[in-house]
Amino acid sequence: MSRSGGAVVSRLTGTIHVNISKYEQRVLHALAQGGAIHHRRDTQGRIVEAICFTREGHVLADGSLPVFRTLKRRGLIFSQSGQPYRISRLGLAAVRSQLDNR
Q1: CATH code of domain 21-94
Q2: In the chain, what is the greatest distance between 2 CA atoms, to the nearest angstrom?
Q3: pTM, 2 dp
Q4: DSSP character at residue 36
């Protein structure tokens, strides 16, 4: 097993094992289904607000700033050119499959 950005990757199976909290799991699942995290910066350029939206446009209550910072630090989400944050390939591999209760 080797470490890769906070994740443990098995050399034999190639699977990724990341310890993800319940709230992080919910946010990643919403992002995997097409959601996004919109952020707001202060005058110094630091992110002071992060709101997670589902693909339907609803706000996810579990998408707080500490959860956002944890996901960003682990490399599970990314942003390009100031756009809203999306799930990364590592995030897709780390999220466990859940049934979509529609």
Answers
A1: 1.10.10
A2: 47
A3: 0.78
A4: E
